[in-house]
Amino acid sequence: MSPYITVIGTGYLGATHAACMAELGFRVLGVDVDQQKLAKLAAGELPFYEPELAELVARHVASGRLSFTDSYEHAAEVGDVHFLCVGTPQQPNTDGADLSYLNAAADRLAPGLQRPCLVVGKSTVPVGTADALTRRIQAAAPAGTGVEVAWNPEFLREGYAVADTLAPDRLVFGVQSPGGERALRDVYASLLAEGTPVVTTDVRTAELIKASANSFLATKISFINAIAELCEAAGADVVKLAEALRYDPRIGDRFLSPGVGFGGGCLPKDIRALLARANELGVGSALRFLDDADRTNLRARRRVVDLARQECGGSFAGRRVGVLGAAFKPNSDDIRDSPALAVAAAIQAAGAEIAVYDPQANDNARKHFPTMDIALSAVDAARGAHVLLHLTEWPEFAGADPAEFAAVAAERRIVDGRNTLDPARWQAAGWRFRAPGRPQLDALNPEEVNP
Ligand code: UDX
């Protein structure tokens, strides 16, 4: 008989995993402590924006395959495989990961376990967490319950969560016994049959695979942003440079877009947590470059603030700045550690009035940044602005008509913090165009360079 699956934690990761497991044909129980979130999900609605996911949740709630509860006892009673999908945010005062949600979930689940089952961690955690969790769960579970812990990290990207879960690049099974591997192979049988590569290993390696993947991606972005600084100093163009690098398959064509840098609930905290753990294990010096990647990333935000200040004539006092984008990336309403809002907040603190517009994240921005004007359209954000900043690369912004913005802005000055707008279109509508890592683009005009 196919296993009954529980998914503990129903945020971006858990809600996606639960709905996708139902899509694969399993009975799934989503577990959370947040009543409001549960009520929405049980009604087939999403408490956040994620393309394709709302339809999937609604479909499987209706089919009866997917249900939700706040009862850990019930989950422990019915589940054969329990996926732990709770958050592991950065601790408030250190760089390490906060494992309190994970430990709390294990503590509530373990005493009710009544039969052999597999507890599978999916969250990004410091290496060694699965070992500690195994001891914790086995100590709290009733004597004789055959419970095993495995680690099966998740690589989904927000904005593409459903596609990434149903058609992953690879699966990683960190297991402690052949039985653990068999149980994971059962769960993912249909994806394995489609040829999804799988790496089976021990739990520690599985934990480190996830932390390394995110740290590599973060380092790649910071690499191109460091080169962007060099380009700016040398009068070179990082966009052309990155275009040429991408043709080399050894470098790869993704995660090489220069701009305001990375944010979100994963990459920034994951590089810090990996370095913190490496320090604990006495090998921090080998990973010191992660500290540089982090600093370069934060500097990328400051450099966009500096460009905006220059465009405001050296001071933000009494200036109005329009900000296109609030989410940490397009196709998401997530504003956790969003570079767009970090830049907007820094400019506001320096004396400017801010108007922000995002196609999906306006509500979240309003909740967390109540002193900023939240505009109802992109053009509204530009109204009366002395400078316009493009900080989240929604397709709607690349497709917008610069003339419409010119008609309402106080001055035609734009900083493209994502390097995805077409300078020629904006310049043709009379805009002065600046972007990190590129020469001042007015100077690219051959008539100005060689009059
Ligand atoms: C990341 C990992 O990609 C994913 O595998 C993991 O499971 C969770 O963490 P996510 O946080 O959803 O996913 O976003 P991602 O698409 O990785 O983007 C992260 C940040 O990097 C965004 O702020 C994005 O704008 C920025 N970025 C990305 C760049 O600045 N330049 C790039 O070239 C690519």
Automatic annotation (TrEMBL):
Substrate binds at residues 155-158, 210, 255-259, 263, 329. One of its GO terms (biological process) is polysaccharide biosynthetic process. Residues 322-423 form the UDP-glucose/GDP-mannose dehydrogenase C-terminal domain. It catalyses: UDP-alpha-D-glucose + 2 NAD(+) + H2O = UDP-alpha-D-glucuronate + 2 NADH + 3 H(+). InterPro entries: 6-PGluconate_DH-like_C_sf, NAD(P)-bd_dom_sf, UDP-Glc/GDP-Man, UDP-Glc/GDP-Man_DH_C, UDP-Glc/GDP-Man_DH_C_sf, UDP-Glc/GDP-Man_DH_dimer, UDP-Glc/GDP-Man_DH_N, UDPglc_DH_bac. NAD(+) binds at residues 32, 37, 88, 124, 158, 269, 336. Keywords: NAD, Oxidoreductase. Its EC number is 1.1.1.22. The active site is at residue 266. One of its GO terms (molecular function) is NAD binding. Belongs to the UDP-glucose/GDP-mannose dehydrogenase family. NCBIfam families: NDP-sugDHase (TIGR03026). This is UDP-glucose 6-dehydrogenase. It comes from Natronosporangium hydrolyticum. The lineage of its organism: Bacteria, Bacillati, Actinomycetota, Actinomycetes, Micromonosporales.
